[in-house]
Design brief:
The chain is 62% helix and 12% strand. It is of the alpha+beta class.
Length: 279
C-alpha cells in the first residue's frame, strides 16, 4: 500500500511538472495568451530534464502516455526557443559588426574627403583652403600674443620651359621635388602650401626678427641651387623668385598680404636679384 501511494505521489509530481511545462509551452506558442511564464528557456529546459529523470525512474506501469507526450512537446518547443534565441543573438551581433564596419568606412571616407579638400593631390602639401585655415589660426595667436608672422611667396623661374622640353610628367616630378625640399627647410611650426601651378607659399610663425626672416628666405633659396634628377636620370635646374609680407606690419588680411608678397616676388623676378626684400 505504501509503495502504491509513493508511486501515485511521484506520478502526481511528474504530472504537475508536465502540466506546468505544457502551460509554459502554450504561453510561448501564443504570445497573446497571458499567464505566468518562465522568462528563461534554459530554466524550462532544466525543468524538463528533471521531470524526464523522474519519469525515467518510474515503473513502466505508472508512466502515462500523456506525460511522455507532454515532456516531448515541451522539450522540442524549448529547444526551438533556445535555437531561436541563439540565432537572434548572433544576428544582432552580426548586424552590430556590419554597422561598426560601415561607420568606420564612413569615417575613413570623411577623412579622405577632408584630406582632398585641404591638400594638394600631387605634392601632398596644403592647398589654399589649408592656407586660409592656418592663416586664421596664426592671426588669432598673433593678435593674442602681439606677435608677427609672415607669408613668403615662391614662384619657379621659367617652369614652362621644363614642361615644354621634358614633358608634363617631368614637370610634376620637379614640383614634387621642390615641395620636399621646401618642407625640409622650414621649422615644424611653419607651413608650406602649394597655391597652384608653380606657386608656393610658406607661412612663417614668430617672424618678429627681420634677420631671422632673411636667413630663412636665403635658406629656402639655397634649396634651388642643386639640380633635380628626374626618373629618367636627366638633371634639370630650376630657379625661383620670392617675395614676402608680414602680419600685422604690412597688412592684416590674407588677400592683402598675398598681393604684397606676390608683388615683391615679381619685382625680384624682374630684377633677377636673389636676396629677399620685404614688400
Amino acid at each position: 500500500m505504501a509503495g502504491r501511494k509513493s508511486s501515485i505521489g511521484i506520478h502526481n509530481l511528474v504530472f504537475a511538472i508536465t502540466y506546468r511545462l505544457c502551460q509554459q509551452v502554450s504561453v510561448i506558442g501564443n504570445p497573446r495568451k497571458k499567464g505566468p511564464m518562465v522568462k528563461s528557456p534554459l530554466l524550462m529546459l532544466i525543468g524538463i530534464v528533471i521531470a524526464t529523470l523522474i519519469v525515467w525512474q518510474l515503473p513502466a506501469s505508472t508512466m502515462s502516455l500523456g506525460i511522455c507526450q507532454g515532456l516531448a512537446i515541451a522539450l522540442l518547443v524549448v529547444i526551438a526557443k533556445l535555437l531561436q534565441k541563439f540565432i537572434e543573438t548572433n544576428r544582432l551581433r552580426l548586424q552590430m559588426a556590419i554597422m561598426q564596419s560601415e561607420v568606420s568606412q564612413l569615417h575613413r571616407q570623411v577623412a579622405d574627403l577632408k584630406a582632398e579638400a585641404w591638400h594638394d593631390k600631387l605634392t601632398g602639401l596644403g592647398n589654399r583652403n589649408f592656407l586660409e585655415d592656418r592663416f586664421s589660426l596664426a592671426k588669432e595667436r598673433s593678435t593674442r600674443n602681439n606677435s608677427v608672422f609672415a607669408l613668403i611667396m615662391i614662384d619657379l623661374n621659367d617652369f614652362k620651359s621644363i614642361n615644354d622640353h621634358f614633358g608634363h610628367a617631368a614637370g610634376d616630378e620637379v614640383l614634387i621635388a621642390v615641395a620636399r625640399r621646401l618642407s625640409a627647410s622650414v621649422r615644424g611650426t611653419d607651413s608650406v602650401i602649394r597655391l597652384g601651378g608653380d606657386e608656393f607659399v610658406v607661412l612663417v610663425e614668430e617672424a618678429e626678427r627681420t634677420e631671422g626672416l632673411f636667413h630663412l628666405g636665403q635658406k629656402l633659396m639655397d634649396t634651388f641651387f642643386d639640380d633635380i634628377e628626374l626618373s629618367n636620370h636627366q638633371l634639370v635646374h630650376v630657379g625661383a623668385s620670392m617675395g614676402m609680407a608680414r602680419f600685422p606690419v604690412e597688412g592684416v588680411e590674407i588677400v592683402r598680404l598675398l598681393d604684397l608678397a606676390d608683388q615683391g616676388m615679381y619685382e625680384s623676378k624682374a630684377s633677377q636679384r636673389m636676396p629677399i626684400e620685404l614688400s
